[in-house]
């Protein structure tokens, strides 16, 4: 049975999509069967693994509205062992389209329940907001990984996210856990990054991954080529970090 992990933080620009793309790709590269679920209307996780999102006939949006089957939506990525439930801008209308739909919080869970036995890991890239799409992800997931950037205001919104996770645990998914926090955009040349890490460690009593994702030019370039970092530049600091994170999660 596949382990379902939501990558979530309602704060934008913290590396959610970068983490979703590269964690799922590195897990696949380590021989695991992986499904990447893109529920962000920007569709960047979709394009980041080599899928042209504008050309898609069936996406998560059609899946949510029961207008296509899972097999019609499943798409191959450029990475062996990595399939995708893709997204594009159409998904931005889901919030309105799902108003009044019975049990709308469970749509993604019901979809993934049908196929989770086929995968070792299912990674869900969440949008930068606490909307019905993120609620669906957390209702479907076994656990949540929270990326936090090593910048000022790193803790901004984290308490709200934890509160939301607690509400979902109480009302929709009793088994949901927080796997931990992963620091992103770490710059070893500045005191700020290390100060942020120490601040979070002293204020938040949640597991924190040993692996820290550095600020890395090659990591930023890779999405524009539709490649995960291990295929774009496997020797870069970003590639090494995400491989280590994948190994840490497998352990």
UniProtKB/TrEMBL annotation:
Sorted alphabetically, which Pfam families does this protein's record hold?
A: AAA_31
Which part of the chain is the AAA domain? 3-178
What superkingdom heads the lineage?
Bacteria
The name this protein goes by in its record: ParA family protein
Which source organism does the UniProt entry give? Answer: Eubacterium segne
């Amino acid at each position: 049975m596949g382990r379902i992990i939501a990558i979530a933080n309602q704060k934008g620009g913290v590396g959610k999509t970068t983490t979703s793309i590269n964690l799922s790709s590195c897990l696949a590269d380590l021989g695991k069967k992986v499904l990447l679920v893109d529920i962000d209307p920007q569709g960047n996780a979709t394009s980041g693994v080599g899928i042209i999102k504008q050309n898609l006939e069936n996406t998560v949006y059609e899946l949510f509205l029961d207008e296509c089957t899972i097999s019609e939506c499943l798409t191959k990525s450029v990475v062996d062992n990595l399939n995708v439930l893709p997204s594009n801008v159409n998904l931005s209308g889901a919030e309105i389209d799902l108003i009044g739909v019975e049990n709308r919080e469970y749509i993604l869970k019901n979809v993934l329940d049908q196929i989770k036995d086929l995968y070792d890991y299912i990674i869900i890239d969440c949008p930068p907001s606490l909307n019905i799409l993120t609620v669906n992800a957390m209702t479907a997931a076994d656990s949540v990984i929270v990326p936090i950037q090593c910048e000022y205001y790193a803790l901004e919104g984290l308490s709200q996210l934890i509160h939301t996770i607690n509400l979902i645990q109480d009302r929709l998914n009793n088994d949901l856990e927080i796997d931990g926090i992963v620091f992103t955009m770490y710059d070893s040349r500045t005191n700020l990054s290390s100060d942020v890490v120490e601040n979070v460690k002293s204020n938040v009593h949640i597991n924190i991954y040993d692996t820290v994702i550095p600020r890395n030019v090659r990591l930023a370039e890779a999405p524009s080529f539709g490649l995960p970092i291990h295929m774009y530049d496997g020797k870069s600091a970003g590639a090494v970090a995400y491989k280590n994170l994948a190994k840490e999660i497998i352990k």
